[in-house]
Amino acid sequence: MKENETNVMSRGELARRYFLLVVSLKATALSLGSWLILWNFLLIAGQILLLRRRFSPVQLLQVPLSFLFGWFTDLGVWLAGFLPVSAYPVRLGLVVLGTLVLALGVSPSVVAGVIMNSGEAFVKALADTTGKRFGDLKIAFDVVCVLGAVALSLLFFHFTVQGTREGTVIAALCTGFFVNLILGRVRQPLERLLRA
User: Fold this and answer.
1) I need a labelling partner for 31 at 20 to 30 A (CA). Which of 7, 38, 107, 182 fits?
2) Do 1 and 25 meet the contact criterion of CB atoms below 8 Å apart?
3) How many C-alpha atoms does 152 have within 13 Å on its Cβ side?
């Protein structure tokens, strides 16, 4: 992975996939997008195990979506490598803005029950199985992924942290919070619209 890709990703983009960044920094034979495709397949398998007979075959459409997400991740990392964002407040602002945009995209898909990215679909399967709020489980899942990234980084890079910084923590903690906030405001109107 090129140095500019590391700098772009260390700002916290691609919420919940931080440990894949660390893996891609160590195992460079595959790109971050390729690792993401493999991770998404594991999450789809996790949904099947959690939901069993309740897993709808239409959710297998997550497979081609996973390929697109991985390919666009590599494209986005490459394109973002050309952005000269050096001011720290601008970086933090972009992390918060990106987290809010992610939450805006996730929230309606949770209410509508449409095909989701496999990460959100896995968290929704956990929520459906446990009866806990989606946003709360999303925070927990994101935090576990961040802790996994730090642990792998310490293991792979001689007890130094690579690819995980404060933007990562902000995105992990705030995405679920923003989802809960947005769902609290849009769930009932969206459900009425879907029933109409």
Assistant:
1) 107
2) yes
3) 19
pTM across the whole model: 0.71
CA distances from 89 to 11, 86, 167 (A): 12, 9, 11
Which pLDDT score is estimated for 40?
92
Give the whole-angstrom CA distance, residue 130 versus residue 57: 21
* CA dist., res. 169 & res. 56, Å (int): 33
**Is the CB of residue 18 less than 8 Å from the CB of residue 163?**
yes
Helix (H, G, I), strand (E, B) or coil at 119: helix
On whether the CB atoms of residues 35 and 20 are closer than 8 A, the answer is yes
Joined together, the tokens standing for residue 160 give 């130094």
Six-digit token string for 27: 């195992």
Tell me: the pLDDT tens digits for 141-166? 888 888 888 888 888 888 888 877 88
